Amino acid sequence: MIGGENFAPELVAAIVRSADAAAAASAAMVGSGDKNAIDEAAVAAMRAVLLRAPFAGTVVIGEGEKDDAPMLANGEQLGLGFDRSLSPEERASYPACDIAVDPLDGTRLAAEALPGAVCVIALAPRGTLFDPRDAFYMHKLIAGPAGVGVLDLRLSASENLRRLADAGGRRVADLTVAVLDKPRHAALIAELRTAGARLHVVGEGDIGTAIAAATPGSGIDVAMGIGGTPEGVIAACAVRALGGFMQGRLAPQGDAERAAVLAAGHSLERVLGLDELVASEHVLFASAPVT
Protein backbone atom coordinates (compact mmCIF):
# COMPACT_ATOMS: atom_id res chain seq x y z
CA MET A 1 0.00 0.00 0.00
CA ILE A 2 1.30 3.45 -0.96
CA GLY A 3 -0.07 6.82 0.17
CA GLY A 4 -1.98 5.70 3.26
CA GLU A 5 -1.15 8.95 5.03
CA ASN A 6 -3.35 10.84 2.55
CA PHE A 7 -6.69 9.37 3.68
CA ALA A 8 -8.53 8.48 6.87
CA PRO A 9 -7.38 5.17 8.41
CA GLU A 10 -10.87 3.67 8.09
CA LEU A 11 -10.92 4.34 4.35
CA VAL A 12 -7.37 3.08 3.87
CA ALA A 13 -8.28 -0.14 5.67
CA ALA A 14 -11.36 -0.61 3.47
CA ILE A 15 -9.39 -0.08 0.26
CA VAL A 16 -6.70 -2.54 1.33
CA ARG A 17 -9.43 -4.99 2.32
CA SER A 18 -11.04 -4.68 -1.13
CA ALA A 19 -7.79 -5.66 -2.84
CA ASP A 20 -7.27 -8.54 -0.41
CA ALA A 21 -10.83 -9.77 -1.00
CA ALA A 22 -10.35 -9.73 -4.77
CA ALA A 23 -7.07 -11.63 -4.39
CA ALA A 24 -8.65 -14.26 -2.15
CA ALA A 25 -11.52 -14.81 -4.59
CA SER A 26 -9.08 -15.07 -7.49
CA ALA A 27 -6.72 -17.41 -5.65
CA ALA A 28 -9.50 -19.98 -5.31
CA MET A 29 -9.63 -20.23 -9.12
CA VAL A 30 -5.95 -20.02 -10.04
CA GLY A 31 -5.15 -22.55 -12.75
CA SER A 32 -8.81 -22.96 -13.77
CA GLY A 33 -8.10 -21.92 -17.35
CA ASP A 34 -11.12 -19.59 -17.38
CA LYS A 35 -9.79 -16.03 -17.26
CA ASN A 36 -13.23 -14.39 -17.47
CA ALA A 37 -14.60 -16.44 -14.58
CA ILE A 38 -11.63 -15.63 -12.36
CA ASP A 39 -11.89 -11.95 -13.32
CA GLU A 40 -15.61 -11.97 -12.51
CA ALA A 41 -14.88 -13.44 -9.06
CA ALA A 42 -12.34 -10.69 -8.37
CA VAL A 43 -14.75 -7.97 -9.49
CA ALA A 44 -17.60 -9.26 -7.32
CA ALA A 45 -15.41 -9.56 -4.23
CA MET A 46 -13.94 -6.10 -4.61
CA ARG A 47 -17.33 -4.48 -5.30
CA ALA A 48 -18.85 -6.06 -2.18
CA VAL A 49 -16.23 -4.39 0.02
CA LEU A 50 -16.29 -1.04 -1.75
CA LEU A 51 -20.07 -0.71 -1.45
CA ARG A 52 -19.66 -0.45 2.34
CA ALA A 53 -16.46 1.64 2.31
CA PRO A 54 -16.52 5.07 4.04
CA PHE A 55 -16.32 7.26 0.96
CA ALA A 56 -18.30 8.45 -2.06
CA GLY A 57 -16.30 6.77 -4.81
CA THR A 58 -16.89 7.11 -8.53
CA VAL A 59 -15.15 4.71 -10.91
CA VAL A 60 -13.19 6.73 -13.47
CA ILE A 61 -10.95 3.88 -14.60
CA GLY A 62 -12.75 0.55 -14.70
CA GLU A 63 -10.33 -1.70 -16.57
CA GLY A 64 -12.00 -4.38 -18.67
CA GLU A 65 -13.95 -2.39 -21.24
CA LYS A 66 -11.28 -2.65 -23.91
CA ASP A 67 -11.45 -6.47 -23.97
CA ASP A 68 -15.07 -6.99 -22.88
CA ALA A 69 -13.99 -8.49 -19.57
CA PRO A 70 -15.98 -8.33 -16.31
CA MET A 71 -15.35 -4.99 -14.64
CA LEU A 72 -16.32 -2.25 -12.25
CA ALA A 73 -17.89 0.06 -14.81
CA ASN A 74 -16.85 3.62 -15.52
CA GLY A 75 -19.25 5.93 -13.70
CA GLU A 76 -20.25 3.30 -11.13
CA GLN A 77 -20.82 4.83 -7.70
CA LEU A 78 -19.62 2.97 -4.64
CA GLY A 79 -19.41 3.54 -0.91
CA LEU A 80 -21.52 4.81 1.95
CA GLY A 81 -21.55 8.28 0.42
CA PHE A 82 -24.03 6.92 -2.14
CA ASP A 83 -26.04 4.74 0.25
CA ARG A 84 -29.65 6.01 0.00
CA SER A 85 -30.54 4.39 3.29
CA LEU A 86 -28.46 7.09 5.01
CA SER A 87 -29.53 10.67 5.52
CA PRO A 88 -28.23 13.36 3.15
CA GLU A 89 -26.13 14.74 6.01
CA GLU A 90 -24.54 11.35 6.64
CA ARG A 91 -23.81 10.79 2.96
CA ALA A 92 -22.24 14.25 2.66
CA SER A 93 -19.82 13.44 5.49
CA TYR A 94 -17.89 10.96 3.34
CA PRO A 95 -15.04 12.15 1.05
CA ALA A 96 -15.69 12.22 -2.70
CA CYS A 97 -13.05 10.23 -4.57
CA ASP A 98 -12.09 9.06 -8.05
CA ILE A 99 -11.48 5.32 -8.27
CA ALA A 100 -9.05 3.67 -10.70
CA VAL A 101 -9.24 -0.08 -10.49
CA ASP A 102 -8.24 -3.36 -12.05
CA PRO A 103 -9.65 -6.11 -9.81
CA LEU A 104 -7.31 -8.58 -11.52
CA ASP A 105 -4.36 -7.40 -13.60
CA GLY A 106 -3.05 -10.45 -15.43
CA THR A 107 -6.18 -12.56 -15.85
CA ARG A 108 -4.45 -15.00 -18.19
CA LEU A 109 -1.56 -15.37 -15.76
CA ALA A 110 -3.97 -16.30 -12.96
CA ALA A 111 -6.03 -18.61 -15.16
CA GLU A 112 -2.87 -20.46 -16.19
CA ALA A 113 -1.22 -20.34 -12.75
CA LEU A 114 1.64 -18.19 -13.99
CA PRO A 115 3.38 -15.57 -11.81
CA GLY A 116 2.52 -11.87 -11.97
CA ALA A 117 -1.26 -11.60 -11.44
CA VAL A 118 -2.25 -8.88 -8.97
CA CYS A 119 -5.38 -7.06 -7.75
CA VAL A 120 -5.01 -3.28 -7.74
CA ILE A 121 -6.99 -0.17 -6.81
CA ALA A 122 -6.13 3.53 -6.56
CA LEU A 123 -7.95 6.55 -5.12
CA ALA A 124 -7.58 10.29 -5.59
CA PRO A 125 -9.79 13.28 -4.77
CA ARG A 126 -12.83 13.58 -7.04
CA GLY A 127 -12.08 15.08 -10.42
CA THR A 128 -8.30 14.64 -10.31
CA LEU A 129 -7.75 11.46 -12.35
CA PHE A 130 -7.34 11.65 -16.11
CA ASP A 131 -10.47 10.28 -17.78
CA PRO A 132 -9.29 8.43 -20.91
CA ARG A 133 -12.76 8.12 -22.40
CA ASP A 134 -12.67 5.85 -25.48
CA ALA A 135 -8.83 5.67 -25.33
CA PHE A 136 -7.81 2.12 -24.55
CA TYR A 137 -4.08 2.25 -25.31
CA MET A 138 -1.26 4.59 -24.33
CA HIS A 139 2.44 4.91 -25.10
CA LYS A 140 4.20 5.07 -21.72
CA LEU A 141 7.62 5.97 -20.38
CA ILE A 142 8.16 5.24 -16.67
CA ALA A 143 11.15 5.40 -14.35
CA GLY A 144 12.10 6.20 -10.79
CA PRO A 145 13.15 9.58 -9.42
CA ALA A 146 16.30 9.43 -11.58
CA GLY A 147 14.13 9.97 -14.66
CA VAL A 148 12.65 13.28 -13.49
CA GLY A 149 13.93 16.10 -15.69
CA VAL A 150 15.91 13.59 -17.75
CA LEU A 151 13.51 11.47 -19.83
CA ASP A 152 11.10 12.68 -22.51
CA LEU A 153 8.59 10.58 -24.44
CA ARG A 154 9.19 12.75 -27.52
CA LEU A 155 12.73 11.39 -27.80
CA SER A 156 13.73 8.02 -29.19
CA ALA A 157 14.06 5.03 -26.89
CA SER A 158 17.82 4.88 -27.42
CA GLU A 159 18.23 8.61 -26.65
CA ASN A 160 16.26 8.22 -23.45
CA LEU A 161 18.48 5.32 -22.44
CA ARG A 162 21.60 7.41 -23.06
CA ARG A 163 20.17 10.24 -20.98
CA LEU A 164 19.20 7.97 -18.09
CA ALA A 165 22.58 6.24 -18.12
CA ASP A 166 24.48 9.56 -18.21
CA ALA A 167 22.39 10.99 -15.36
CA GLY A 168 23.31 8.05 -13.13
CA GLY A 169 26.93 7.71 -14.21
CA ARG A 170 26.21 4.33 -15.76
CA ARG A 171 26.41 2.63 -19.14
CA VAL A 172 23.37 1.84 -21.25
CA ALA A 173 24.43 -1.79 -20.93
CA ASP A 174 23.80 -1.49 -17.18
CA LEU A 175 20.14 -0.53 -17.65
CA THR A 176 17.24 -2.99 -17.60
CA VAL A 177 14.15 -2.05 -19.62
CA ALA A 178 10.71 -3.61 -19.10
CA VAL A 179 8.65 -4.13 -22.26
CA LEU A 180 5.43 -6.02 -22.89
CA ASP A 181 5.90 -8.96 -25.25
CA LYS A 182 3.55 -7.78 -27.99
CA PRO A 183 3.92 -7.76 -31.80
CA ARG A 184 3.56 -3.95 -31.76
CA HIS A 185 6.84 -3.75 -29.85
CA ALA A 186 9.02 -5.59 -32.38
CA ALA A 187 10.73 -2.40 -33.59
CA LEU A 188 11.12 -1.05 -30.03
CA ILE A 189 12.70 -4.28 -28.80
CA ALA A 190 15.09 -4.28 -31.76
CA GLU A 191 16.10 -0.67 -31.00
CA LEU A 192 16.69 -1.47 -27.32
CA ARG A 193 18.83 -4.48 -28.18
CA THR A 194 20.87 -2.41 -30.64
CA ALA A 195 21.39 0.22 -27.94
CA GLY A 196 22.81 -2.50 -25.70
CA ALA A 197 20.27 -2.41 -22.85
CA ARG A 198 19.14 -5.48 -20.96
CA LEU A 199 15.51 -6.43 -21.56
CA HIS A 200 12.86 -7.68 -19.16
CA VAL A 201 10.12 -8.86 -21.51
CA VAL A 202 6.79 -9.86 -19.97
CA GLY A 203 3.61 -11.18 -21.54
CA GLU A 204 1.25 -9.39 -19.13
CA GLY A 205 1.50 -7.30 -15.99
CA ASP A 206 1.47 -3.72 -17.25
CA ILE A 207 0.89 -2.25 -13.78
CA GLY A 208 3.44 -4.38 -11.97
CA THR A 209 6.25 -3.51 -14.37
CA ALA A 210 5.36 0.18 -14.16
CA ILE A 211 5.61 0.15 -10.37
CA ALA A 212 8.88 -1.78 -10.52
CA ALA A 213 10.32 0.79 -12.91
CA ALA A 214 9.38 3.62 -10.52
CA THR A 215 10.90 1.85 -7.51
CA PRO A 216 14.66 2.31 -7.04
CA GLY A 217 16.46 -0.97 -6.51
CA SER A 218 13.75 -3.13 -8.07
CA GLY A 219 15.99 -4.33 -10.89
CA ILE A 220 13.94 -2.48 -13.51
CA ASP A 221 15.30 0.93 -14.50
CA VAL A 222 12.66 2.02 -16.99
CA ALA A 223 9.46 0.74 -18.63
CA MET A 224 8.68 1.61 -22.23
CA GLY A 225 6.07 0.86 -24.86
CA ILE A 226 2.35 0.77 -25.51
CA GLY A 227 0.00 -0.68 -22.92
CA GLY A 228 -3.49 -0.14 -21.60
CA THR A 229 -4.57 3.42 -20.82
CA PRO A 230 -6.63 2.31 -17.79
CA GLU A 231 -3.61 0.48 -16.39
CA GLY A 232 -1.52 3.57 -17.14
CA VAL A 233 -3.70 5.83 -14.99
CA ILE A 234 -3.74 3.28 -12.18
CA ALA A 235 0.04 3.00 -12.35
CA ALA A 236 0.38 6.80 -12.42
CA CYS A 237 -1.15 6.96 -8.94
CA ALA A 238 1.55 4.65 -7.59
CA VAL A 239 4.33 6.34 -9.56
CA ARG A 240 3.29 9.74 -8.23
CA ALA A 241 3.25 8.48 -4.64
CA LEU A 242 6.70 6.94 -5.18
CA GLY A 243 8.16 10.20 -6.51
CA GLY A 244 8.92 8.61 -9.86
CA PHE A 245 8.71 9.76 -13.48
CA MET A 246 5.96 9.00 -15.96
CA GLN A 247 4.76 10.35 -19.27
CA GLY A 248 2.05 8.99 -21.54
CA ARG A 249 0.60 9.69 -24.97
CA LEU A 250 -2.57 8.13 -26.33
CA ALA A 251 -1.85 5.45 -28.94
CA PRO A 252 -5.06 4.04 -30.46
CA GLN A 253 -4.68 0.61 -32.01
CA GLY A 254 -6.83 0.65 -35.12
CA ASP A 255 -8.99 3.06 -37.09
CA ALA A 256 -12.13 2.61 -34.98
CA GLU A 257 -10.35 3.44 -31.72
CA ARG A 258 -8.54 6.35 -33.36
CA ALA A 259 -11.83 7.83 -34.57
CA ALA A 260 -13.44 7.38 -31.14
CA VAL A 261 -10.48 8.99 -29.37
CA LEU A 262 -10.55 12.02 -31.67
CA ALA A 263 -14.34 12.30 -31.38
CA ALA A 264 -13.96 12.36 -27.58
CA GLY A 265 -11.74 15.43 -27.94
CA HIS A 266 -8.42 13.83 -27.10
CA SER A 267 -5.15 14.87 -28.76
CA LEU A 268 -2.88 12.17 -30.16
CA GLU A 269 0.14 14.49 -29.94
CA ARG A 270 -0.18 15.68 -26.35
CA VAL A 271 2.32 14.23 -23.90
CA LEU A 272 0.68 13.70 -20.51
CA GLY A 273 2.82 14.06 -17.41
CA LEU A 274 1.99 12.97 -13.90
CA ASP A 275 0.24 16.27 -13.20
CA GLU A 276 -2.18 15.56 -16.06
CA LEU A 277 -2.64 11.87 -15.27
CA VAL A 278 -3.14 12.45 -11.52
CA ALA A 279 -3.80 16.10 -10.67
CA SER A 280 -3.31 15.64 -6.94
CA GLU A 281 -0.52 14.61 -4.60
CA HIS A 282 -3.11 12.95 -2.36
CA VAL A 283 -3.27 9.46 -3.84
CA LEU A 284 -3.72 5.99 -2.42
CA PHE A 285 -2.63 2.79 -4.14
CA ALA A 286 -3.23 -0.72 -2.85
CA SER A 287 -2.43 -4.10 -4.36
CA ALA A 288 -2.60 -7.75 -3.40
CA PRO A 289 -0.74 -10.53 -5.23
CA VAL A 290 -2.58 -13.53 -6.64
CA THR A 291 0.23 -15.51 -8.28
Element layout with pairings:
Elements: H1 9-27, H2 35-50, E1 56-62, E2 77-78, H3 88-92, E3 96-105, H4 107-111, E4 118-125, E5 137-143, H5 157-167, E6 176-180, H6 186-195, E7 198-202, H7 206-214, E8 222-228, H8 229-242, E9 245-250, H9 255-263, E10 272-273, H10 274-277, E11 284-289
Parallel strand pairs: 1-3, 6-7, 6-8
Antiparallel strand pairs: 1-2, 3-4, 4-11, 5-8, 5-9, 9-10
Catalytic activity: beta-D-fructose 1,6-bisphosphate + H2O = beta-D-fructose 6-phosphate + phosphate
Pathway: Carbohydrate biosynthesis; gluconeogenesis
Protein name: Fructose-1,6-bisphosphatase class 2
- The biggest beta sheet, please? 6 strands, mixed
Mean pLDDT reading: 93
Tally of discrete structural domains: 2
The helix content, as a percent range, equals: 25-40%
Number-wise, the strands total 11
Fraction in beta strands? 15-25%
Mind telling me the C-alpha Rg?
A: 19 Å
Task: Specify the CATH architecture of the largest domain.
Answer: 3-Layer(aba) Sandwich
Low-confidence regions: none
Shape by Cα distribution: globular
**CATH top level class name of the largest domain:** Alpha Beta
Helical/strand content category: alpha/beta
Order of helix and strand elements from N to C terminus: HHEEHEHEEHEHEHEHEHEHE
Structure description:
It contains 10 helices and 11 strands. It is α/β, with parallel strands linked by helices. The protein folds into 2 domains: 4-125, Fructose-1,6-Bisphosphatase, Chain A, domain 1 (2-Layer Sandwich); 137-277, D-Maltodextrin-Binding Protein, domain 2 (3-Layer(aba) Sandwich). The strands form 2 sheets. Strands 7-6-8-5-9-10 form a 6-stranded mixed beta sheet, sandwiched between helices. It starts with 8 loop residues before the first helix and ends with a strand.
